[in-house]
Amino acid sequence: MALLKRILFMILIVDIASIKLGRGFVNTTLIFWRCGSQSQSGNYNRAAMEVKGRLKRNTGRRGNNYYTSERVRDELRRRCYGHAICNQALSRQECIDCLQVTGTRLIQLCGFALSARVMLHDCYMRYSDGYFYEGCKNNASHLNLNFSPQGISELC
Ligand SMILES: *[C@@H]1O[C@H](CO)[C@@H](O)[C@H](O)[C@H]1NC(C)=O
Ligand SMILES: *[C@@H]1O[C@H](CO)[C@@H](O)[C@H](O)[C@H]1NC(C)=O
């Protein structure tokens, strides 16, 4: 029993330590967007939807900066690549909320484009059928410390 209590106590401490307080509001003002040409492939669109879904769900749980890609069914070597980043001032849930809005914006602004990116004041989402990670990955610490539309549009 004592052991169980100790374990529960430790879980509680770890849990509290992992809660980020956040800022209390999310600024979803649209800053810029860019759309590639429209996709003609249902399989590609399905991969892109999967990628966007993961970006929305997972980025807030993965340090507000997250990459994922998905293979396109029946198309050899073709993938959809995705990246999302939130202002580090945002809590996990605030990041999820912000990216929910980018997801909606991407569809409104770009439809089923092969590649698209949307920057809101507090978060950014991009997906593409071409690999584009180098600039952002090589500058991850810079991006995490200085969340700015200029930096992100130049590097990611
Ligand atoms: C939200 O972001 C826009 C664009 O960057 C800025 O003009 C505005 O002042 C921000 N609003 C708040 C409440 O911070
Ligand atoms: C980003 O990374 C590249 C190397 O890939 C480096 O040359 C460049 O200075 C970095 N930019 C910033 C702002 O850190």
Largest sheet: 5 strands, antiparallel
| Total number of beta strands | 5
Q: How do the strands of the widest beta sheet line up side by side?
A: 1-4-5-3-2
SSE series:
HEHEEHEEHHH
Q: What keywords describe this structure?
A:
156 residues; alpha+beta; binds 2-acetamido-2-deoxy-beta-D-glucopyranose
Topology summary:
Blueprint: H1 2-18, E1 30-35, H2 42-58, E2 65-71, E3 79-86, H3 92-110, E4 116-120, E5 123-128, H4 134-138, H5 140-145, H6 149-155
Antiparallel strand pairs: 1-4, 2-3, 3-5, 4-5
The structure holds 2-acetamido-2-deoxy-beta-D-glucopyranose (2 copies).
What does this structure look like?
- The structure is a single chain.
- The protein is of the alpha+beta class and 156 residues long.
- 46% of the residues lie in helices and 21% in strands.
- It contains six helices and five strands, in the order H-E-H-E-E-H-E-E-H-H-H.
- The protein has helices spanning 2-18, 42-58, 92-110, 134-138, 140-145, 149-155; strands at 30-35, 65-71, 79-86, 116-120, 123-128.
- It has a five-stranded antiparallel beta sheet with strand order 1-4-5-3-2, sandwiched between helices.
- A hairpin with a 2-residue loop joins strand 4 (116-120) and strand 5 (123-128).
- Helix 2 (42-58) runs antiparallel to helix 3.
- The longest helix is centred in the middle third of the chain and has 19 residues, at 92-110.
- It is globular and about 60 Å long.
- It starts with a helix and ends with a helix.
- Mean pLDDT is 90; it is low at 13-18.
- One 2-acetamido-2-deoxy-beta-D-glucopyranose binds next to loops.
- Residues 27, 29, 121 line the site of one 2-acetamido-2-deoxy-beta-D-glucopyranose (NAG).
